[in-house]
User: Fold these one by one.
Assistant:
Number 1:
Amino acid sequence: MDPAPSITLRHLVMALGDSMLEVQAAPAGLDVEIHGVALLDPEDPPTAHPGDLVLAIGSRGRAAFPALRAAGRDGATAVVVKLDAPAQAAGLSETATEAGVALLSLRGETRWEQVSALARAALDDAPPEDPGAAAEEGDLFSLAQTTAILTSGIVSIEDAANRVLAYSRTTDSDEADDLRRRSILGWQGPEAYLAKLREWGVFQHLHSSDEVIAIDSHPELGIRRRLAVAIRSGDRQLGTIWVQESSTPLSERSRQALLGAARVAALHLVRRRRELSDDVTLVRTLLAGLMDGSTGPQPLATHLGFDAARPAAVLGFSHGTTEAYEAGDAVAAPELAHTEVTNLVSVHIAARHRSSLVTQVDSRIYVLLPQLPRSIDTDTLRGWALEITDAARRHLGLPLRGSVGCLVPGLGAVPESRREADRILDAMVSARVSAAVAALPDIQAEVLVSEMLTLLSAHPEIRDPRLTALVAHDNRHQGRLAETLLTYLNSFGDVRAAAAQLHVHPNTLRYRLRRAEELTGLDLSRPDQRLLAMLQLRLPPTD
């Protein structure tokens, strides 16, 4: 039996935002887990279950004390109450701390059923225990946040009954218009505006089309400009994504980002309906097997209805901090959420190719592009990957690297494309390639040299002991003889160019070269020794 889904209190508070909830006390911190949502009616005896988020409906002020004590006694995680006055917070917080349970206060205008629905939605989207799967799937709240970043707007995701399922966070409450606030707090939108939407055919458009529609601003109704797109599964509308323009205009690529977000959101909503309860795990397993060659193409093709005989390719992306650019770029924080990066990749590539599949292995993200048009070329795929790396740099401040695996004639050759994507990423790191995206023809020499160095690293018996001794001498004396020699060789023997690169006088460089030859017995007039030195001195330092 699968374990019940859970989220942390931190995740819940971040998802619902401070426009709805405020933390009054958290004696065990914010990383405690929530396993379920319980409604506590004032006429019921105060009880709870371990891990519950208890919604103390109708228990205001002193009436909430029994609920707090019972929640602590029964092992609940948190209690949500409404306050009649801010002064009540101190006494309730003290009681919650004594009981060992978190206390959240609900904004007075917020409806309990909306909090319950959003909390249950967050639990429904809770990622599985497998961290790789969590990064791959994400949740609707993180998808809303990613879409907000890509569009420079304020995002809400609704189901087919116009109930808010998730929304992006805002840093300024003045950014959200009246319709946005009313929708999130569970109120019905202004009827005059809804009538306008019906009059303009917006709901009819969303019901019948998957194209993005723009809705003009109406200052007289307190409504700002919006974009909307239907979330669809086949011919059926599952919901809608709305993007409200804030004080900043929407980005140029908002429509493209919104199309991709709708396709990603459809997977979440279909999964929520349990129509594909085990499908996510099955697709992930079949995709992993196809990418590493342990499973043939037919199972995935049959399951998803792909044409296995049409061209395919793999894009690779690396966002590990150890692989960040070193040419003046700020290294991203190690805690950067994998979900944000994966969502960004998923949204962008879904807008370009509907059949794309995204998965993550360790710190790398892979995109499978099945059943591509036969006319497509590497330049087009490079452009898609560049859009993604540019978006990551602009919106997440992340120096993402991308690689374009070779185009292959069918799904059966996908492992070859994935291997090529990995070869390129490996070389981009070891050779410090400055390009954000590369295909094999772009950096073939760097790839081959990188692989030669890998072989040399794995076979110390074929190294020149004189060069090994030179590196060891530098390590003992904090010297720079090996670095000087490699810089000189990389400069084709141009003393002045090498000296300028090292910021030393040419005579200093000549002295270091003579010293290196004296210590090692190397003869730099011999081409073979120069070639071996260029290779061996490129090896990474060892402990």
Number 2:
Amino acid sequence: MRVLAGVVTGVVLAFLGLGSATAAPVPDAPVQQESTRDNGLQAAARNVELRKTIPDTAGAISINFVQYRHRDVMFVSGTFGLKTYDVTRQDEPKLLDHLTKKELALPGDDPEQRFWENEDVTVDPKRKLVFLARERSAFGRQPGNERPTGVYIISAADPGKLELLNFASMGTGHITTCVNDCQYLWTTGYDGTPSTDPDTYRRSGKVFVTDLRDPRNPKTLTTYVDTKRNQGETHMTHDVQVDAEGVAWVAGTGGTRGYYTRGWHRDPLTGRVREATAYDPVPYAGGAAPKLDMPTSFSHNSFRPVGDTVEDGPRPTRENPAGSLLLHTEEAFDSPTCKDQGRFVISSLQGSTRGESWRATPDKPFTLKTVGVWSPDDQEGTVPGPDVFCSAHYFDVQKRIVAYSWYEQGTRFLDITDPTKPIQVAYWRPEGAVSWAPYFHRDRIFVADFGRGVEVLKLTKGAYDAQETHTNVTLKTEPVKESARNADSPRKRLPLAPDPDYGYGCPMLRGGGCGEGSACC
């Protein structure tokens, strides 16, 4: 790994400090669902095989993949920085390079502390670029002190020799996402807007737009996107996902809203046809889920099955035609059993394409129609409350199966063929798990587990049989007993702490070199 000479110019001069997997099982042979390295307890699992646990990846947060001719490369972002792996043979990942915390550290950082957070690593598969969003709490930066935020721009032309090209300083750095084929970045999160409002999520509320046509000279613009997103009031933006038709969906407090970022479209707010751009997009559809289904109105991330991804989502019907459904997550922790909030919601976009969400006010709110809801509460494989760290987080979708992270409730697999009745067909909840985000890649699922590291899973035939017959393997009439546990071996939990800006919406680990009981980011 090397830092490219000559990049320390402009903003970089101010901030940039210069500075292998184990043997695989026999192909297609099931791997014993091994217990954790800490206490020897077997995982609670059904219709899932563990194929590989990748060493030295604890603290993994997000994953992405890029095809290099005949080689598949996986990018893993975490508290350790950025790692690349050759995953052409999926059960035999090979470490290629590691962009370390020391190499990412800016002046004033403590490189012994954690890189934070880049919750959804973004890649440009054409130019082979990787983007890491830097949070204000990175490297132990505390409120009241200078806390630089922005996006690191990394060349992965050779994934075995990552090159740090630049650091684009901006007013936020939670999650960054490519729009318009990575010619622009949309960056979301808390932006530090001064406010005395006790509601953290009301202290900011805009998407930062960065011109990335020249990655060595990124330019963050002075115009913002998706303001006044919560019934006409300012609230937090969190995540952006671009669907197969190019619509950019911004999730956050107040739901999920989609924008055209290119082409000519009728603007529902003016009635005129105009050109959509990344810095002046045209509203398309979306809004908040009803309070009954998403009480906090905090949508964490989303997916709209459309175009060449329509077969991944629910089966289209006359009531819910192709492109009319939005899958989104509520991240919330006031209900530790996931009984009342922190759920997976499927909403209809019908009736939201005339600017309804953009015209809404607190006195005249607008909500989407709910089609289906699911949570692990009272399901097989679920750890009963009341002290469980439970909330929906990131998900991925393939062939009408949703792979879903639920923190300490592990990774769940839902059949969404019928969007009105999502059912669980498989689950993986090992000891010490804090499932952050799962990713389908060919016939495997790579899970970024904050506690255990990256794990490679495979669904068994039983999962697909359950999907084919729409057989729910999870529903129970009372909370189930915890699998693979006895009274003499209490469940091991990670010492999670609230983020200083986001609270438990983006939890961190306590301790770890930051001082006893302190939050280390």
Number 3:
Amino acid sequence: MKKLTILFLSLFAVSFHAQVVSATIFSKDENKPIPYVKIGVEKEKTGVISDEDGHFSIDLSNINASKPVLIEVPGYEKYSQSVQNFKSLDGQKVFLKEKVKNIDEVKIKTKKLVDKNWGVNTKTKHVMYNVNPDLKNENFLGETALEFNTNKKSKIKNINLNISSYTSDQPVVMRYSIYSEKNGFPDKNILDEEITVELTKDMIKDGTFTLDVNDRNIWVQGKFFVGIQFLKRFQGRITISAALLRTGYIREFYGDWQKMTIAAPAINIDVKVDKNGKNIKDEVKDNNDKVSLLAPDLSQYNMESENSVYGKNGAAGKTVKLNDTELYYEIYGEGEPLVLLHGNGGSIKEFYKQIPELSKEFRVIAVDTRAQGKSKDFTKGDLNYKIFADDLKNLIDHLNISKTHILGWSDGGNTGLEFALKYPQYLNKLIIIGANAFPEGVDEDLLNNFKTKVHMVQLANQPEHETEKRLLNLMLNEPHITKKSLNKIQNSTLVIAGENDVIKKEHTQMIAKEIPGAKLKIYPKASHYLPFEIAEDLNRDVIDFLKN
């Protein structure tokens, strides 16, 4: 339950009686053009960015004549003029006055400064912001930001942006901004100088573009926002990793900032901070405590799983074609067979904390479910957990396994329930973690986010997202296991969930109650991702249940 992409909102101006003003932005002090200046109407989505030579054209048709036109760029005083007066500047130069820089002396002893990293670190390719200028025939100059919060004055050394894919034959021009906070939203840009980058593919190292701002002397304290904006159209597309259910902020030009509670962009910062300072937990403000519990920061676990051998171990891995799928699996250890089934959109590597321990006691068979990980799906129709159960039956037949234990996490647990119903004679013991018998057992907020995601994927209409849409619809529409069906399961079953799971607690309790003789284990303070969070406890309990 982890896949989700967020599209940048597009900007457009509707013109009935065109009244276009063209001019050039100049520095008053240096008498030279200023590139990439922001020109727009206050509290409106109408705006443009000047080109490399400071030139711009803006359509002010049907805009109230008394509304202010704002011109902004860091390092210069803000320019404001009514629409009516601004129209008279057509064909002329607009001069901006340089700001007087006020440099506050910061006295912190070097020995008291320590390095920290704050923000969203995920490098997932499943939850993303998608920047695609050609998705629509309109401008795409939206701006997105992430909020931070620190008690002590801190210096920003690097701003990191995790980019999952980059496709462009020309440099992509983008601006970084750092905003103060007002009423919970970004307010004024606190930078004294413009930070503009011409991003190329070779500047992205291991999925991250790191911008060194150490010499810019940027000090922050309290609440602040780091924002990014794309300044110039380009042929291609960029996708930025994002953290599911975290709060990001987005606006269209000078329009109002809006909260995006579905996901937050993977912006993180390296800072120097007083080691004695008590910084606010996570250093990123999230206004929804429930959401923070449902979707904790998994960046550390994602990096660890990526660096593990599991899911890509040539020595242990094999592929087998079975009917209309090609399944990838890895086998470790000896003893009674134990199949590991991962969650939606996941893969074998998610059991990187379980395989080393469980393979000491069992013959562990970790499987990439069809259409996920390295397994393939040759069908185009709707997916369901009964299909996945059939795939597992075909695989154990291929391996000449007459009976197996199953440990299924999330969607893998749903598949385990379907397998127990359809192939009980091939199942020894069943362990399900964060599983649901029907969609209503999942937290409503998460289901609503899945629905939003499906809608956005449909709007994007990109073939490469078809599997993603099928997997989302799977969670929205499946499974359909009744209480009566659960009563039929006779295999020894252990039902597991976290106290803060995305599966409703009462739903997990219902599953355990309806399966005859099932044991129930709810781990305090754990989330849906307890195989990551409390691996040692989980592994011990799994071995104990299967052995005894």
Number 4:
Amino acid sequence: MREMLTGGPLDVLTGDYLAELTMLILGRDRLKDPGLGYAKTFPRQLEDCLALAHDQGVRIVTNAGGLNPAGLADAVRALAAKAGIPVSVAHVEGDDLMPYEDGALTANAYLGGAGITACLRAGADIVVTGRVTDAALVSGPAAWWFDWAADDWDRLAGAVVAGHVLECGTQATGGNYAFFTAHDVRRPGFPLAEVSEDGSAVITKHPGTGGAVTPGTVTAQLLYETQGARYLGPDVTARLDTVRLTAAGQDRVRVTGVRGEAPPDTLKVGVTRIGGWRNEVVFVLTGLDIDAKAALVRAQLAEPLAEVGTVTWTLARTDHEDADTEETASALLRLVVRDASPDRVGRALTSAAVELALGSYPGFHVTAPPGPAQPYGVFTSAPVPADSVPHTAVLPDGTRLPVPAPPPREPADEPGKDTHPGAGEKPPASPQSPALAQSPTLAQSPTNSTPPQNPAPPQNPTPPQSPANSTHPQSPASPHTQSAPTTRAPLGAVAGARSGDKGGDANIGVWVESAPAWDWLLRTLTVDTLRTLLPETAELPVTRHELPHLRALNFTVTGILGAGVASGHRFDPQAKALGEWLRARRLDIPTDLLSTPEGTRP
């Protein structure tokens, strides 16, 4: 927060503190103390920076209120009074739908930015919200600054796209970036957006900060945790297939052309609950006969595990033949157990595993001592009618202002969508909710903007047609025919990727930077090819979306994460590295595309 306030001019500083897992943690906090339920880190940050923000006239908008925005607003007022700083504080509520159903720990609707706009219009210096969409932290202030109407769909969509780019902080400035070796990303600066009245924006960062802002880093974040060309939100549906990115100088990328449509008439409700109890043991297998050692452990534990609800074994062959260190000669056998009863997966079970030490495979040891069972959470989501959620702006003077739901959108087909169900599965329904972010903090500025230099794009644009239909036949105009020379190489030699989680689903965004590479990628990386490259997806429903302006494909893999991050279903429970696994897989690539990665390409 201090870095953003001292690094350059800002009009609004925003902070995003909420994720699916965060809501579960805050729910457990609230069980212990009903006065909690908000992000406790925010008041500590504010204590250090409130005077600085006040002196500079910077408004602060944050969703750190979590499950208790009114409680955090009161805490901020107390902090400001103690410091003698005159600030007006407002908050947004109505997202908390508890009691929602039996067993629910939390249930929160994803609100839009209209409540934030109302609070800022009433003169609030600090606006605290509960569960709003991450992008609402930018679109709400932008609508206030420019006095946009609730149906200024294109402008709102542009601000939503800017907010989506900013919401995960340094992921837009070179963090978690496929081509990270092209930039100095040891300490990337936080991104900011210079939003213009027409909804276009320039993504940049404070001068002198690390990292980089390039069309590539912005593309990577645009593709993160989205599902489809229509990015559905509570204020507007943003058409990601209309987004255009252009370099506008050093560490400056202009975002233009975004078109918006009316939002759906439903809101997403994220529900968390305690799913049961889990535990795990990781056995280290060293040297020879790795498979036989793993089989012996599994056989020896078969009886103690017979009554356990769910048992998952995975063997990671991290061992190397004739290795010159013991660590690189070792593989990891991971046992994960889940059950409704903590007793069946508690210390008695893990102790039984460790007690094999003197009577099992040679070299027996584990990575950690036996531990007690731990509760795990489950995240699910459901739609509710938008007009049934009591979205309310509580203004600085205490006035409670109801925020009406926007008018519903007309039904429309999903553009650029190619769905392949898994074995025996129906195609998944079109997404009904906005994306979630997974970053705990960020800061950005939606104003101090430079008027756009590009003319306004035409109304009701038609997205560019893909150079192939859904079956992707070879185009006669394609420079890469079946007879063109190819080289067996990793996909990442020509393509970047960014992946993440959406509840139990994962998404993988893949992009390239040249027209020939896009022509090849579009024809080659089909759903079937993806399933071949990533065998874990072979039996799951997979949906492919095409975004030609970004030269990108976005894949949604339904169900790969089970019950979501809090359940610890998978080795990579948030699918953060799924895209990097895909980039490491080899296939036949036209030799003339195998130039150099971002930063040194012509």
